[in-house]
Design a protein that fits this description.
Low-confidence stretches: none
CATH class: Alpha Beta
CATH topology: Rossmann fold
Number of helices: 7
Oligomer: single chain
CATH architecture: 3-Layer(aba) Sandwich
Shape: globular
Bound molecules: adenosine-5'-diphosphate, magnesium ion
Number of strands: 10
CATH superfamily: P-loop containing nucleotide triphosphate hydrolases
Helix content: 25-40%
Order of helices and strands: EEEHEEHEHHEHEHEEH
Structural class: alpha/beta
Length: 283
């Protein structure tokens, strides 16, 4: 009989969670849970500083980190928010525009090869049965890369890459989650906003900023994130491309909660990598 020390590494208990399932992000004004189906979609998150954008990102990225079938690429100009999840990430980028550009170019390579595969298969969209791991690209502080550091050419190139990922990624399982505290038309031009099926407007300073996030005309129809009480952090208007904005209060996790989930997710991913393929419960 094998001594316990000789036992093969055990199959880690997967969470059984999948990125193909909707993600719980908070509650609506009736107190009912709000779930966000992110697979085949992108989400744009914007609002003034302290609106709760990074907390919403934590909910999304944390859930994706726990999913057995999702890889993470995280880009955070401030480092400290998405940085909590870096041990679960295939790639983590801090305040380094070159690194961000190079990383988006690699993601673009994934798009190209997956599209070639689809062309061979004569299909338009990857499915769960293809066995390709969806990839969640999360960018916090988008404006840092798109308008603050580097030259105008580099910034524009970064924005063009992000736009390409948002445009071509959905069908091949690449989900773009971009957050910015500058809801102005130079950071979120209409051409970019249209690529994001989901939009979340945290508190904005005025109606026109709210419209930059949600789309032109919503403030005039009384849906304005400028109406949100500045003290009610985490509240925002969530809009699906085919719906009307709904008030959502994002779920809140303390830093201790976040660390617990982040450490568990990273440990689970590490163990999954260490075990031999024939014993693997998760890919
Ligand atoms: N859903 C929420 N519920 C309660 N408090 C929240 C919520 N989201 C954010 N906050 C509070 O607001 C602060 C700022 O949130 P954060 O997500 O960092 O804002 P942003 O990224 O928009 O600048 C957090 O530290 C937290 O205390
Ligand atoms: Mg933030």
């Amino acid at each position: 009989m094998n001594a316990p020390f000789d036992a093969p590494p055990s199959v880690p208990v997967g969470t059984g969670m999948s990125i193909y399932d909707p993600i719980l992000i908070g509650i609506d004004e009736y107190g009912l849970p709000v779930h966000l189906p992110l697979m085949y979609h992108n989400i744009l998150i914007a609002g003034e500083p302290g609106a709760g954008k990074s907390m919403l990102l934590h909910n999304i990225v944390g859930t994706a980190a726990l999913c057995d079938d999702c890889d993470l690429v995280l880009i955070d100009g401030k480092q400290v928010d998405l940085g909590l999840w870096k041990d679960s990430a295939a790639e983590f980028v801090g305040p380094d525009l070159d690194h961000a550009i190079h990383t988006l170019e690699r993601v673009q390579g994934v798009l190209d090869s997956r599209n070639s595969y689809l062309l061979d298969q004569r299909r338009q969209k990857i499915e769960r049965s293809d066995g390709m791991r969806p990839l969640l690209l999360a960018i916090d502080e988008l404006a840092y890369y798109a308008a603050t550091v580097g030259t105008k050419i580099e910034q524009d190139y970064f924005s063009a890459l992000n736009r390409d990922v948002a445009a071509r990624g959905r069908a091949v399982g690449v989900i773009d989650v971009s957050a910015t505290q500058r809801p102005s038309s130079d950071i979120i031009p209409t051409s970019l906003r249209f690529l994001f099926g989901w939009r979340f407007a945290g508190r904005c300073v005025d109606d026109s900023s709210s419209d930059v996030v949600l789309g032109h005309g919503w403030a005039g129809r009384n849906y304005s994130a400028a109406k949100i009480d500045p003290k009610n952090r985490g509240e925002g208007l969530l809009l699906a491309e085919d719906g009307i904005p709904t008030r959502v209060k994002g779920a809140f996790l303390t830093n201790a909660n976040l660390l617990r989930v982040a450490d568990y997710a990273a440990a689970k991913r590490r163990t999954a990598r260490d075990i031999p393929p024939n014993l693997r419960a998760v890919a």
